[in-house]
Amino acid sequence: MSDVPQLAYIERVMKEQQEALRIAEVEREKAASALRLALEREIESGDARLSDHITHQIEQVQQALQALTTLLSERDGRMDDRFDAHREAIQKAEDSLNKRLEGMNQFRDQMKDQTSMFAVKEATEARLVKLESFQGKLLGAFGLAMVVMPLIIGLITYFLTRTAIPIDGLQQ
What we know:
This protein has one domain. The chain has two helices and no strands. The protein has helices spanning 3-74, 79-162. The two termini are 39 Å apart.
């Protein structure tokens, strides 16, 4: 009789552990999702600020070029030489800005890759731990069944054979 309440207690403890693991998995998923969203927002915000800064710099360079073009057009015959020199300077500045932007894009891609790898690694580790826990519980339950079942069968056999009426006793 004492085996039944203990078995029910063990089943209840196992159910509570499974529920706790489920809740922990849900909370971990929520945290990973929140982290992923925060990182994406930070990256997008940084990209927007960098794009605004670059756009502003390009506008300033273009305004300077416009002012210079006006000044040079009023000058003498050296206008073409100066204009070409400034055009090269602007091209170099744009090339430099493009290289910086490419570097930022590479950094953003690396951050996205790291974020996705973090989420996949965490999910895999959590599932592995959960699977190992379930495997241990299953082996424990089978081990317990292999010990308890022979005892139960032995007791049933003992009680059934103890109260049996001998065949010789029927003739008397």
